[in-house]
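Teaching note: in complex prediction, the entire set of molecules is handled at once rather than each chain in isolation. The prompt given to students was simply: 'Predict the structure of this complex.' The entities are:
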Amino acid sequence: MAGKRAITRQSLPDVIANDLRERILSGELAEGETIRQEALAEEYDVSRMPIREALKRLNAEGLVQWTNNRGGSVTKHSLSEIGEIFDLRSLIEVDLFRRSIPKMDAGDFARCEEILKQMETSYDDNDVSKWGILNHEYHSALYTASDRKLTQELLDRINMQSDRYVRMHLSVMKQREPAKMEHRDLLQLARDGKVEDACELLTSHIRRTKEQLLEMIASKRADEAQR
Amino acid sequence: MAGKRAITRQSLPDVIANDLRERILSGELAEGETIRQEALAEEYDVSRMPIREALKRLNAEGLVQWTNNRGGSVTKHSLSEIGEIFDLRSLIEVDLFRRSIPKMDAGDFARCEEILKQMETSYDDNDVSKWGILNHEYHSALYTASDRKLTQELLDRINMQSDRYVRMHLSVMKQREPAKMEHRDLLQLARDGKVEDACELLTSHIRRTKEQLLEMIASKRADEAQR
DNA sequence: TGCTAAGATGTTGGATACAAAATAAAAGCT
DNA sequence: AGCTTTTATTTTGTATCCAACATCTTAGCA
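The expected output is the structure of the full assembly:
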């Protein structure tokens, strides 16, 4: 068994789907961009088959839109849809948090604390992409105690959508200090067992992110429309 | 244009995925049953390719579990997972209902009323499968006014999971009268604009379904384990 | 007899080749 | 010229074939 990695062997569609997902989330593949299987197949130097599967998967995830016999494109959400995504996040995250808090133990708190530290480091280093990942990890860590696997999977999917827009504007995000504070406060309130206060803070935390983002995206799109 | 159906042409994977979905939801393909591509390919008289795609899609939907190079099986949920599915339904449906009620107009109410009637007819005819579909339609109709497309898509997916278990036991469901009443009351409360009362009723409506179902499934599984 | 290792079998994953559909372009008609 | 119809091109969808992986069986050995 020595040296044998325990990693489940990834198939080509897995690898490709992951890579394409990253490319979409990072904005390398822009909203609305049309997708041609053959072009991607050539790029990855594989046949169209694994590409197809990867695209279909991304389609199911909502990152790609596919039409029979007509190909596909990178999903572009309207402003109200982006708002909706954040409302969903809020709804589900608060529910998870509420279930989680009473069950959190010292280990959970320690783990959150650990991530929080790394987050603030990456913060000062201005390492945006790392911060995004850690932010996601932190939120997840807050909810693990809830022991709701299906709900968390659902949330991961939704977060994937919102991440797209968060990342798009993370670099221009000015006032990060309040977010930093809020993250700490969330943990402290959870520690104190103040369930309702914590949930309320989480709600407003997500709402603030939503509002800031919508504003930025709106102005960005207005710019693009002008040109 | 005459005679030309406006239906978007369905590809083989579409048709097959729909059929397989129905077979899983109806219980024809039982929980945990292993799936072999070739067997299905022969059955539908197509190559394995569209079967593969259909299975991958069902996998993404959560109805089938797939392992690389090792094939797949029909997803089997634990009791707590089934409970979780219903909690998710409750969370999302109530949110949608709350947003929907203030926006509902005469047309929405009429549509709900219409479905309700059909539902009660199918009810008396003891047409279980039709009732299931109408039940789903009714709930959806209550939420259309909310104008939350993404959320409703999400709900549809979750309902797909719960439908599996609802259908499994719909035939043995005894006391349907309370459900019938509740469905009427939901609409009436919405009409009266009593948002919180309506949401509360919806919550308890789903909770009751959940509890009844969990009990039934638990005893059924206990039986099966004995044998 | 019990264990390990090599082979056989079956099943899935991926590549190539062909068919069908959609779009774009060109020709014909009024 | 403007419109319709036909042809050509491009792109996706499906079938068939081969390769890789997993499991089961059997042979070899202590």
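Point out the following to students. The longest strand of chain A covers residues 64-67. Residues 1-7 of chain A have pLDDT under 50 and may be disordered.
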